[in-house]
Structures are given as C-alpha cells and as structure tokens.
Amino acid sequence: MAEANIKLEESWKEALSPEFESPYMQQLKAFLVEEKQRGRVIFPRGSEYFRALDLTPLDEVQVVILGQDPYHGFGQAHGLCFSVRPGVRIPPSLVNIYKELETDLGIPPARHGFLESWAKQGVLLLNSVLTVEESQAASHQGKGWERFTDAVIRRVNDECDGVVFMLWGSYAQKKAAFVDTERHLVLKAAHPSPLSAHNGFLGCRHFSKANAYLAEHGRDPIDWALPSNPEAS
C-alpha cells in the first residue's frame, strides 16, 4: 500500500504519508491482495476504503464519530461508519441514532441510511477497521487497520482545535482515550446498538451538545437533518 499509489484527499495523504510507508501497511496490503486472490469478497470496494477521509479533509473536521467494523452484508458498507448505501435497509444502530436525533433536535427519522451529507459538513465517520470479508464479522481485525485509524485520530487531536468526539460504547472510548479534553469536547455514551442504547445512548443529547460547542467556538453547526433524496447529499 505504497503511499504514492494511494488515491486520497491531499491533506490526509500528506498527514498520513509515514503510515503508508510503514511496514505494517505493506503487510496489510499484502493481506488484502491475498484475500482477493483467494476469491474472498471484501467490503467496501477498494475505492471506498478511505471514503471517510476523502469526504472530510483534515482541516475541515468538526466532529468525529467512531465505529468498529464495516457492515459485512452485501451492498451495505461504503466507507462511512453507521452509514449504508441508498436503498439498503437502515441498520438497527442507525435507527436508534435517528431516534435520538428526533428526541434531541426534533428531526424526524430519515427514510434512508446514507450519511454522506454529514461527512461533507465535517463529520468524520471513521471505522476502526476499514475492511471486512462478506458475512464474516470482525474478520479483518488485528491486520493493521487499527494502528492506521489510531494515527488518523491522533492527527485530528494534534492538528485540529475544538473538535467534538462522540464516543459511543466502550470500544470507541478506549480507542480515543488519548484525546486532549482541554482542546476538544469529548462526549461519551453507550453504543446505539439495540443491546445497549437504553443504557445511556438514548437521551444523551450529543447532537445538540455538539452544535452548541461548535457555535461557542465560532464554527458552523452541523445540519443533522439528512436530505430526503439520499442521492442529493
């Protein structure tokens, strides 16, 4: 995964060049190539591995939402955590995110799960692991992606000011435990999964808290209402 061969938004490409030149990323690339040669189906498609970074340049990051793995069902994953392609059934965790949005900001639930309009406003929708084998949850954990996405979070922490980190669930909270709470706002809640959403995610009001913080720091709030036509986002 030589840095020179990566098609990536320029601010991220420059910031992450040491990662792409590191042995662990070469090993990760070799793993992905071998998996494809063995006929394994990998999600998302290769052009979307870094979609979250492409849509949200480093100097435009306002909010960070962390996920764990891409969806492993056919046609779901497209490079943004919690988001699915237009026409795909809205996943249960995203249903609960929409419930909280309605409670918090009065925004009716969208009829689709395509979150690119958030990403284009500066919401970095980052999974910890950026690929997965079809129907094999967590199949690409421990292959190097976690180290790479740690580096992404570290760049945001070190090079940006006044970013809101929405850390849902213990996994996200541990992954971003090093974030400087004097420079950034760190919001913590349970994961929006149906298994845990009632343990503190529903009612957390992270969306209004994020917008209030951004406004206090002279930044544009996020329009969390998704367009009715997902293709228009």
From TrEMBL:
Active site: 69 (proton acceptor)
Cellular localization per UniProt: Cytoplasm
Catalytic activities: Hydrolyzes single-stranded DNA or mismatched double-stranded DNA and polynucleotides, releasing free uracil
Organism domain of life: Bacteria
One GO term describing the cellular component: cytoplasm
GO biological-process terms attached to the record: base-excision repair, AP site formation via deaminated base removal
SMART domains according to UniProt: UDG (SM00986), UreE_C (SM00987)
One of the record's GO molecular function terms: uracil DNA N-glycosylase activity
Function recorded in the entry: Excises uracil residues from the DNA which can arise as a result of misincorporation of dUMP residues by DNA polymerase or due to deamination of cytosine.
The name this protein goes by in its record: Uracil-DNA glycosylase
Originating species: Rhizobium freirei PRF 81
